[in-house]
Amino acid sequence: MNHPVSGKGADVIVIGAGAIGAACAFFAARAGMKVIVLDRGEIASGTSSACEGNLLVSDKEAGPELDLSLYSLDVWNNELKEFGHLWEFETKGGLVVSATDQGATNLKQLTGRQRNNGIQAIDVDVADLASYEPFISRELTSGAFYPQDSQVQPMLLAGGLLHLARGFGATVHTGTTVTGFIRKGNSVHGVTTTNGTYYADNILNAAGTWAGGIAELAGANVPILPRRGFVLVTEPLPVTIRHKVYAAEYVGNVLSSDAGLQTSPVVEGTHSGTVLIGSSRERVGFNNEVSLPVLKNLAAKAIALFPVLAGVKAIRHYHGFRPYCPDHLPVIGPDPRVPGLWHAAGHEGAGIGLAAGTGQLIAQALTGGAVGMSLQPFAPERFEEIHV
Known about the structure:
Layout: E1 10-15, H1 19-30, E2 35-38, E3 54-55, H2 64-77, E4 94-98, H3 101-115, E5 122-125, H4 129-132, E6 142-146, E7 150-151, H5 154-167, E8 171-173, E9 178-184, E10 187-193, E11 196-205, H6 211-218, E12 225-234, E13 244-247, H7 249-255, E14 262-269, E15 275-281, H8 292-305, E16 314-324, E17 331-334, E18 341-345, H9 351-366
Parallel strand pairs: 1-2, 1-11, 2-8, 4-13, 11-18
Antiparallel strand pairs: 3-7, 4-6, 5-6, 9-10, 10-11, 12-15, 12-16, 13-14, 14-15, 17-18
Helix pairs in contact: 1-5, 1-9, 2-9
């Protein structure tokens, strides 16, 4: 049962119990802060339950997101390494492939730029692709292998981090919808919810796709929009796909602001033997309908990449919404327009991978310590003049 908190309450209230909110809660609680986590649904019931659990550097170009990805990767591999079994952490590596000569040229240029910016990228000749993936199409022209690319089970991640946070005294209240903010002048000092009032010195908006609405409740413009995506799941198979494998055009789709449907094959195996098949992106608001044409498109592109999948049954699918920002950068840090309000949202499809770094940076900033990298590129107020 959830109990309303009165008085000072906590050092920080985290709104959102997905991967980002859970990581922020863990690092803040470990740093000695009194943490309350609120979620209108269940743990990981939003975007974290509708994604593949990617920790990628292979789809990043130079810039703030790559900097955050490499910082986060360091946190995954060091501070969180001992807990990796809780969320099935696996450094499986990623294989990016091209099916055209022009694509091969573009991919080689991309890997060159990436190596100059700290990414381990190994160019793979077409003759060597089968040594990485024996069942891959023989119609491809080139590839690149990224040994840093990793994988987690995202729902286990959120649950595991919150379990650890509870060990440091954090409390988690599910089924608790935030309905408003408690104010003193322009500052916020608590929230009203469907289960009572909670007070804290800091309120962290980690509500994922719904973070824009939470910001609006507080009087701040943070234009985070939903971007729908589908994933197909096959029947369990013997080991067929060894790495995360995707087509080179995926990188362009990630960086695109096009509202229309975009699909590019992303295929990978899981611990249970099932194969996950993505990916799609489209801006359709919060339209939650199932699109059979999108699912057929994903299946066809996966078969083109791995012909062996042609006779395999798809046993289910899932879909959800990625929290999308117009400039493709997340919103991380304090909001100077509303003192006491913080944000950690808008990571789109990279949220699982960026969760560790985001959580640590937020905790460092909340406690007034040295921050591992600049939060300026992710500042919430950069959207002050943007209206969408």
